Amino acid sequence: xxxxxxxxVILLHGLARSAHSMDKMAQRLTEQGYKVLNIDYPSRAHPxxxxxxxxxxxxxxxxxxxxxxxxxxxxxxxLVRQFLSNHSIKNLNKVVMLGPPNKGTEIVDKLGHLPxxxxxxxxxxxxxxxxxxxxxxxLGKANFDVGIIAGTQSINxxxxxxxxxxxDGKVSVENTKIExxxxxxxxxxxxxxxxxxxxxxxxxxxxxxxxKFNR
Length: 215
Fold this sequence. Notes:
Rossmann fold; six-stranded parallel beta sheet
């Protein structure tokens, strides 16, 4: 006799990635008994607001009346913040963000003007700078239960040289933080591969179950 699914977990990948990047996370969460929706969305095709409205609305429709949690990588976390700035989700449980540019990233500040940057990263990528006018910095503090995992290793020393202090190759540890967050932990992993890291996945499961990370 199978155990009935009691919670819906929506996975949102990062910029210029696909749902495939979250496959390992999806498998492990499914094994834990969650109804998992590993959402694929065209991250480079539209601005953040449009991506958030279309992607999250469609995903929520599949969760019906179940409690809903989100696990996001990178820009996926900004989509959740964008959506929640305009909507309330009555059965929202927890949000776990992996390497989110919650205060933007200096990479956009310093490389956004270069030919080809917009082509590669789209409108949404251009909105992820660190200025007060960037989308992440206009969304305000978190008024929902969120735990954040920041990576501390990089495989791209060139990009890391553009970022002050400790970073994961794309986002500094400091810029993953957001006012109102419930918990924050640093893991020795890179931005590109953190969603497939076994330690990260175990911390995600821990937060979803207990509302805090395991130290």
